[in-house]
Amino acid sequence: MIACRAAAIWPSRGRKPAVWSAIHQFPRFGPPRTEPPGSPRRIVGMITTRVLVSCSLLAVLSAPLHAQAVPDRLLVTGTLAFDGEATLGDFTGTTTTVAGRLIGAEGLSAVRGYVTAPARSLVTGNGRRDKDMYKSLEADQFPQIRYDVVGVRAGQIDGDSTAVTLRGRFTIHGVARDAEIPGWAWLGQDVTRFRGATPLNLTDYKIGGLSKLLGTLKMHEEIVVRMDLTFKP
Question: Which residues have C-beta within 8 Å of that of residue 159, sequence separation ≥ 6?
């Protein structure tokens, strides 16, 4: 509910607020008022009318961002990354070689799309570890990592951003599994941006080779996948 104060819309001397002209477009009901100008009843009626009109206009202007139409857009820049843990310490794999598309809709909840990246574009800053990673991903046989968006669940609005949860599926190592990615979306006239993260278990995608030297060197199967994607017309 939007709270309105009469003082905020009461016209100052010699000047009328923008909502003033809209007041006179509302029909009058019942017999004409007979109270003389300046009477308490007439003043109260005018204040009440102005408050109601202003509240109605504010409600329209405060329409949720997720109720607005979202246009088609292409992924122009982005980062796909994951955070992992291993015996020798934590590490991050990342790539900026991404492609994708946002398929617009009349409302945010109906938006579709996808993002994809070559498996061999992921790097961790350690060449030997990267080779082991490509081997575990069988990158030659399954060259692409992909996430398909089948819907969006919108949450609270904070300034120019909206809390969202992407509903869709990852396809990794040739295995497709449903996955949701919570995050934040920025819906601008010229740009749409999403940032989010979600946990992922590598064994769900039949990725092996996580242990070496009889298990003395091991990568944990639980990782966190992060996305930062920018779409433009």
Answer: none
The span from the CA of 65 to the CA of 69, in Å, is: 9
d(CA 231, CA 184): 14
Question: DSSP characters for 112-177?
Answer: EEEEEEEGGG-B-S-HHHHHHHHHHHTTTTS-EEEEEEEEEEEEEEETTEEEEEEEEEEEETTEEE
Tokens of 80: 């796909």
**Six-digit token string for 194:** 């999403």
Q: For residues 16 and 7, what is the distance between their CA atoms, to the nearest angstrom?
A: 13
Tens-digit pLDDT profile for the chain (233 aa)? Answer: 333 333 333 333 343 333 333 323 333 333 444 555 555 555 445 544 454 444 444 433 344 555 678 899 999 999 999 999 998 889 999 999 999 999 999 988 999 999 999 999 999 999 999 999 999 999 999 999 999 999 999 999 998 899 999 999 999 999 999 999 999 999 988 999 999 999 999 999 999 988 874 445 788 999 999 999 999 99
For residue 57, count CB atoms less than 10 angstroms from its CB and return exposed for 0-12, middle for 13-18, buried for 19 or more.
Answer: middle
